[in-house]
Design a protein that fits this description.
5-stranded antiparallel sheet
Length: 642
């Protein structure tokens, strides 16, 4: 039981709600609280009497049918109690029978409200009952009860004339309100019916004007409706009504799209394909929703062959057209809108002749493309095979690193063409008193770059091996003139403008000296004290038309005893974009790598550098060829030692 002291603080008065339905009780409570009333609740008549004994309310609103004690019994107890007789009681009733009015009068109820009620009605009735001042004498039972007979049942009503009048007026008011609501509902129904008729007329107009053929069949597959679009095939609508749909189809199609024929075949087949795409598609479909027929391709025949179609459908000279059909079954419904059986088929037929013509054209084009693709793939395989062979040739020209490691045991090389072949190369030449190591980055990559490397290989062999040149600056100057002359880029009429960047490092064991010259490439070295230094080359490249034939290059002389390791590299590694900010790898990052990992064995450094590089670029593809040569200065050879 709810504590009466817990009722809401409202200014309109205190109301006790007696209702066994929690939902209805909460709804009524909310309505009354929002109107300013203080409210408490009871679940049945017996609990309500306990509330009244603790704190008599200003008004009781009670349901009739409740467990433990119903509303009539509770009301009778209230009215029989001398201290409670003045408390007004409103009954909530469905008013399904006149007995409820008579029983309400008999138990002494003051008024009632018919369910379902509106918010203004319940609030207004509550305020009206509280505002009406009625004495205990006017509410007391009459000594001379009024006997009435209702449906062959006699009732003795002890209600006062005021109560009877209130009930009669309330009944009349409720009847007027319900009658007004009924009139409003009838007007609304008429309006809705008029709108429905208008919508149906609009629908019929729409169906008759759409370019697609819309049809309806009965349970036997006979046409009961078809729109004017069929007239474009030469048919007259009245002559089709009652005809089987097969009169519209090309004869060879009927066998495969008729429900009767297809289902018969399925019954005689022992193979059932569960795949939805394998389910039969029918012109007189009986299924709906996901199982309905979609995109059933059929051929419709003209009534008169050689008839020319015009309008929305494709114009053509033929005795039939290709169409796509979407169809679904119609279920017959009973009075309760429950499906009770199949009543026919509705469908839409769309001309797809133009689409079929396009598909056939596309198939022809696709066949031609496949043939061309096959030829292209064969040619591409031949080209790739040639490039792979060129890779073997290019790789064979590079120094064998096992031979290099006889002179420089602690060393590594990374040579990674962006494509199968590339424009980077490295060159070495060793002699009794020293060595020459060259890294070259030619114009371009792939096949063009590879052609340039062949030319540069030839030039390096001439100037170093044949001419015995060991000065890095003079090697670069000679190579500049050689490339310009070989590519005829020293004239004004040539279209060629190719060149290269290069780094040349000469080691002299006798003098204990390293000489470096660079054409737009740098060198990084690590000192024995642990410092990492970038030795830049000159800021111009070799061999281009803009490169002067008189170019000279600066030699940088460095003592070997101060150097621990040397790294030569092409731009492919430092110019690669990557990282979280999409920035170049850069010389600074390469220096940091040397600082942290340059102390590791050289047979591991190359692998670690590649791993760091690929981690930096992530899933991106390398933008250029990559070449890095790293080596330690052997202590035993410095100063002419063996």
């Amino acid at each position: 039981m709810t504590d009466p002291s817990a009722v809401s603080n409202g200014s309109e008065g205190y109301i006790l709600i007696v209702e066994d339905s929690p939902v209805q009780a909460v709804l009524l409570e909310r309505i009354l609280k929002e109107a300013g009333f203080r409210v408490t609740k009871a679940r049945h008549g017996e609990e309500a009497l306990q509330h009244v004994a603790l704190q008599p309310p200003d008004l009781i609103i009670t349901d009739i049918n409740m467990p433990v004690m119903d509303g009539f019994t509770m009301c009778r107890a209230i009215k029989d109690h001398p201290s409670w007789v003045t408390i007004p009681v409103i009954l909530l009733t469905d008013l399904t029978h006149i007995h409820e009015i008579v029983l309400g009068l008999e138990c002494g109820a003051d008024n009632y409200i018919i369910k379902p009620y509106s918010v203004p009605e319940i609030v207004g009735k509550a305020r009206e009952m509280m505002a009406t001042s009625v004495t205990a004498a006017s509410r007391s039972a009459c000594d001379d009860p009024l006997e009435v007979e209702v449906d062959q049942h006699r009732f003795r009503i002890h209600a006062s004339r005021q109560q009877i009048m209130n009930f009669l007026l309330s009944t009349y008011a409720s009847t007027i309100n319900r009658n007004s609501a009924l009139i409003d509902a009838q007007l609304g129904l008429k309006f809705a019916n008029d709108k429905l008729t208008e919508s149906e007329n609009n629908y019929r107009t729409l169906v008759q004007t759409v370019p697609d053929i819309i049809y309806r069949l009965d349970t036997e597959g006979r046409i009961v409706f078809i729109n004017h679009a069929i007239e474009k095939l030469g048919y007259n609508i009245p002559e089709l009504i009652g005809q089987h749909f097969s009169v519209l189809l090309y004869p060879e199609c009927v066998e495969n799209v008729s429900h009767r024929n297809v289902v018969a075949k399925l019954h005689h087949s022992s193979v059932v394909d569960p795949c939805p795409e394998a389910q039969p598609k029918l012109f007189d479909e009986r299924r709906t929703h996901d199982r309905m027929t979609t995109d059933l391709e059929v051929k419709l025949v003209y009534k008169n062959s050689r008839r020319t179609m015009t309008g929305a459908m494709e114009t053509m000279q033929s005795d039939s057209i290709f169409c796509a059909v979407n169809s679904a079954g119609i279920d017959r419904s009973d009075n309760h809108q429950q499906a009770v059986g199949y009543s026919g088929t509705v469908g839409v037929i769309r001309d797809i002749t133009q689409r079929k013509q396009v598909e056939e054209a596309l198939e022809r084009v696709n066949a031609e493309l496949q043939k061309a693709l096959s030829t292209t793939e064969e040619a591409n395989r031949a080209i790739i095979d040639s490039i792979r062979y060129a890779h073997r040739i290019q790789h064979a020209l590079l120094p064998e690193w096992g031979v290099v490691q006889r002179w420089l045991p602690d060393s590594f090389v990374i040579w990674r063409p962006r494509d199968i072949i590339g424009g980077d190369l490295y060159f070495t030449q060793f002699h009794a008193s020293g060595a020459i190591i060259v890294v070259v980055d030619c114009t371009g990559h792939g096949v063009p770059g590879a052609f340039m490397t062949m030319l540069v290989f030839s030039g390096l062999r001439q100037v170093i091996n044949d001419h015995g040149e060991r000065d890095p600056g003079r090697i670069l100057s000679w190579l500049n003139r050689f490339v310009r002359s070989s590519l005829q880029q020293d004239g004004d009429k040539t279209e060629s403008d190719d060149g290269l960047d290069a780094a040349v490092c000469a080691l002299d064991w006798v003098k204990g000296q390293l000489t470096f010259a660079g054409a737009h490439l740098a060198m990084i070295y690590r000192t024995r004290a642990g410092a990492v230094v970038v030795q830049k080359g000159d800021h111009w490249s070799i061999g281009y038309r803009r490169s002067s034939p008189a170019l000279t290059f600066t030699n940088h002389l460095l003592p070997l005893q101060d150097m621990m390791a040397v790294y030569l590299f092409s731009d492919g590694i430092v110019d690669q974009i990557g990282g979280p900010d999409n920035l170049p790898y850069g010389k600074q990052r390469l220096c940091e790598w040397v600082r942290h990992y340059g102390h590791e064995p050289f047979n591991q450094q190359g692998q670690h550098l590649l791993a760091d590089f690929h981690a930096y670029i992530g899933t991106s593809e390398p933008l250029d060829d990559i070449t890095v040569v790293g080596f330690a200065i052997p202590d035993g050879l410095v100063g002419g030692k063996t």
